[in-house]
Amino acid sequence: MERTIKLRVRVDHATYSALKEVEKEYREVLEDAMNYGLTNKTTSFTKIRAGVYRTEREKHKDLPSHYIYTACEDASERLDSFEKLKKRGKAYTEKPSVRKVTVHLDDHLWKFGLDKISISTKRGRVSVSPTFPKVFWRYYNKGWLIASEARFRLLKGNVVEFYIIFKRDEPKPYEPKGFIPIDLNEDSVSVLIGGKPTLLETNAKKITLGYEYRRKAITIGKSTKVREVRRKLRKLRERDKKADIRRKLAKLIVKEAFESRSAIVLEDLPKRAPEHMVKDIKDKQLRLRIYRSAFSSMKNAIIEKAREFGVPVILVNPSYTSSICPVHGAKIVYRPDGGDAPRVGICEKGKERWHRDVAALYNLKKRAGDVSPVPLGSKESHDPPTVKFGRWLRAKSLHSIMIERKMTEMRV
Questions:
Q1: If DSSP codes are grouped into helix, strand and coil, which group holds residue 200?
Q2: What is the model's pTM?
């Protein structure tokens, strides 16, 4: 398992100039290595290194030799990634190009210390003294080991952005005592904890539309090639905001599963899930919202966090989970016009009402192998409680939210 921590530190002009020289020559080696790989139709690091090392060593005599090794490794990774994109039809150019450079370091090129980090350059070793953020100490104090490799890139204003990699063995999953099914939706995530369904708002709809309106306001009547327009668009942080929500929600869910020794049940979504979902939708705004909901990213965030805690994850068939009654196995009929409750339907056989997210949770639990009876006549089956975005975002655990909700019900 790996986690990467990003550090930014402002350095003096001499240090920045020494690193700038390294970056310039590293870029030249990287471009030559990629051209060699393209010419010889190979993505193998060993073959690229064998083909370019002698030539590059003569051209860059003062550059530490291990920069040539790491540049060849970087070229191999870029070429391999480009080939995969090309096979999937997502490559926009005939051959890969080097636009941004992040210099790769191995254990010969950098030394880590809590007081300083030293990096090899043409002028000898230079030292960088970063201020470590909280997330760094979280991993450092919990037994994660700092890897031998690292990366850095140079920003404006004599700023160095450093990437430190932590590694740890993946814990073995435990034998689960129960199941916590998770249903992913456009604007919420539904969970079933202790037989109680709960909807956690994610505000994805509001965030998506808000940033889309801001993009239109910035670009209306202007070309995206204008520097000022590009600068304003770069300042938008839709991706970062959604990623932050996913990580926090995944941690809450996984911690709850870990403390109750339960397995997490998720839908086994196909590749390019949003493309399948929007295939028959004509409404442009709805297509945009679904496409940017990032269902697979939420699923992957939960799986990745579960691996960190050793929580078992069960992937089940997602088909018809919200349209089949979990009690009778009959079809749930939803009103075509939506009505006043567009997400509530009626079982054709038993005539009970089901909220589509709650029906999906119980069906996911059944498909994971749970044989416990499904409660009938519960108000929560068609009117589940919703936890507002700001409430769960501040919560330490889902358990505390459930207790708070019970106390509120008792007071009422």
A1: strand
A2: 0.82
